[in-house]
Amino acid sequence: MFIIGEITVDDSIAGTKFACDLQLCKGACCTFPGGRGAPLTDNEAVILERIYPTVRPYLPAEHTAVIERTGIIEGDPGNYATPCVNGRACVFVYFDNDIAKCAIEKAFHDGKTEFQKPISCHLFPVRTRRNGTEIHYEYFSECDPSLERGRREDIPLHRFAAGPLARAFGTAWTDTLNETITNEQR
Measured in whole angstroms, how far is the alpha carbon of residue 26 from the centre of its chain? Predict the structure, then answer.
């Protein structure tokens, strides 16, 4: 482990090769079983309530029915998440053929909203602990194709996740992370 600013970085961030391979994993990160969807910050919960009318047209009918029945978010302040459909897919998932994708992100790319998606989703498979003061790579067998692609194409996780890391912690912090890992690997 090492520390950059006030963030503790697990060695798994430096030691993992990773690059999403949606053709093989089918967007499994959006459909993990467990009944709870994407963790949300309190501010993201407010944003999702506000942008739902914009995102709604991108969602399958089954997903909007769940939202109408259960609401857009679940949990309490400091512990919000998106609900799931049938204990698996996040309610904000739509399917492009057989690949699970994020309707929030689709609306963002279509210029309908300025909110890209929850930061927990954007960072995945980088995870935070201790109120966001520690980051680590979390292994999921569903992501094995992404690990294989990362190794094959020599893409370090910290480079693959550079954009989301910059969104979460700032560009200067991410530049320092990249420099630190590069220097340690020499």
Answer: 15
The residue type of 76 is D
Cα(48)–Cα(61) distance, integer angstroms = 18
pLDDT digits (tens, 9 = 90+) for 66-112: 999 999 999 999 999 999 999 999 999 999 999 999 999 999 999 99
Of the candidates 124, 110, 109, 114, the residue with the CA atom closest to the CA atom of residue 163: 124
Amino acid at 135: I
Residues 6+ away with beta carbon under 8 Å from 177 = 4, 9, 13, 158, 165
Strands (E) across the chain are located at: 2-4, 7-9, 39-40, 80-81, 84-85, 89-90, 93-96, 99-102, 126-129, 134-137
Report yes or no on whether pTM surpasses 0.85: yes
Euclidean distance between CA atoms 129 and 14, whole angstroms? 17
Distance CA 178, CA 48 (A): 32
Instruction: Give the closest residue to 58 by CA, choosing from 113, 98, 15, 104.
Output: 104
